[in-house]
Amino acid sequence: MNWFADNSTLIQTFTAIATALIWAVYLQMLLSGVFRQRRPSLSINRGSGEGLEAQVILSNLGYEPIYVQDLLVTLDVEGDGVHTYYVTDRRELSSDQIAQSLGGTTQGPLKMGDYISLGTVRGILSRGAPYFTDDKVLKLNEITFIVLGTAHKPGGARKTYRVVQGGDEVEHLKPTRLDTERLSARACRRIHAEQGSDV
Description:
Blueprint: H1 2-6, H2 8-38, E1 42-46, E2 55-60, E3 66-77, E4 81-86, H3 95-99, E5 108-110, E6 115-120, H4 121-127, E7 140-150, E8 154-166, E9 169-175, E10 181-183, H5 185-195
Antiparallel strand pairs: 1-2, 2-6, 3-4, 3-5, 3-7, 7-8, 8-9, 8-10
């Protein structure tokens, strides 16, 4: 008992330090949760349809709205290399469909929990014309869809599909990974610097 009395100042100091450390851990957990919620989180998935007729669906899984700014597609074509094209505007639609609201573009706000179709794979590929032509379809190895947007800071998503050929047509698109890769603000800026902006 005398030891506690003799060392009360030391015990109080250690108690104060331990309490401060516990509160610092709680504060770090709270802040990381807030930052995680504010970070844009987009998901790219193949929707209904098979092969080139499959829909490409973009979903906002974040806690805040995001403005979808650019859509790019990177094509790995056998014998032609890897090329990236802006395919933001939906040129494959008819003039009547384009005239409906903002139907002619993939740009626009996407609220929390909302999703939109970016078009069919065939439609997205046709937007790469004249750089990408039908004769290259059967030479496709991989297709990568890249979405760039902004909330309180730039954010984006990227997903790659391996093209499974079946005879004289594209049979299936197989994702190279289950989840969508989240792009940081720095990665989005780098893509813009390399490709230029489409807006």
